[in-house]
Hints:
Blueprint: E1 2-4, H1 6-10, H2 13-16, H3 23-29, E2 32-34, E3 40-43, E4 54-56, E5 76-78, E6 98-100, E7 108-109, E8 120-122, E9 135-136, H4 138-144, E10 150-152, E11 172-174, H5 183-190, E12 198-200, H6 212-219, E13 225-226, E14 229-230, H7 233-265
Parallel strand pairs: 1-3, 2-4, 4-5, 5-6, 6-8, 7-9, 8-10, 10-11, 11-12, 12-13
Antiparallel strand pairs: 13-14
Keywords: Leucine-rich repeat, Repeat
Organism: Oryzias javanicus (Javanese ricefish)
Protein name: Protein phosphatase 1 regulatory subunit 42
Amino acid sequence: MVSLTVDLISKSNHFKKKRGVSFAQYLQTLTHLHFSNKNIEHIGDLSMCGNLSVLYLYDNNIKQICNLDFASNLTHLYMQKNNITQIDNLNNLHKLSNLYLGGNRITVVEGLEQLGQLKELHLESQRLVPGEKLLFDSRTLLSLAETLCVLNINNNNIDDITDLSVLKNLQHFSAAFNKLQSLKEIEDVLSHWPKLILLDLRGNPVCKERKYRDRLITACKSLEMFDGRKVSDATRRFLLWKKSCKHLNEKKQANTASANDHLLFNR
Length: 267
């Protein structure tokens, strides 16, 4: 089994180029560690790398996130395309801002309650068994409500995003190639995201709904990019004007109907 340890780091070409520096000094000053696509199955003892801020471990065979308690300075963790089934052992990564876990085997988004600085979470294309979909733990969602700005959940068989409405600071939301069908549900969720500027829902059944694009642009007035296409200010103003006119006409018709009913009642 290939394990990421300080011994493996000592054999890397990057360290060999550091002339006049002891290995202990090198580990203490190390901020970025690149070990992607190295057939790594386990994270060993890296506690001597106390200043590590960015860790690249994508395209390996890691089954569990472990032995990262020392990494209190870590801000970016790249572990996409491994064999991880559960998000855990991240409680000490209080400075973590970007977490990449796409292409694993995760079924429940959980274990992020202590990550008070997390801004980006990438969970696209989990390798789920047929009939399974990616789920979200309510405690984790509440803990991310104030900080999370970017969420990528593309291609995860998701058919309901109602629970995600608590993420009120989202700016980028990608949920392409899922199973979202309810346009009304999505409108309701978008009403809770006043800062959203990028939305990608391509490949969902809801995209075939009548007035799909128009309705979601008016539901989220901050959108700048929608399904890969720019939303112009002119388009937004026109759609909002149409919606306002429709609302006024409906109100006028309701008032007219009420007045007619009143006249009939008093004859």
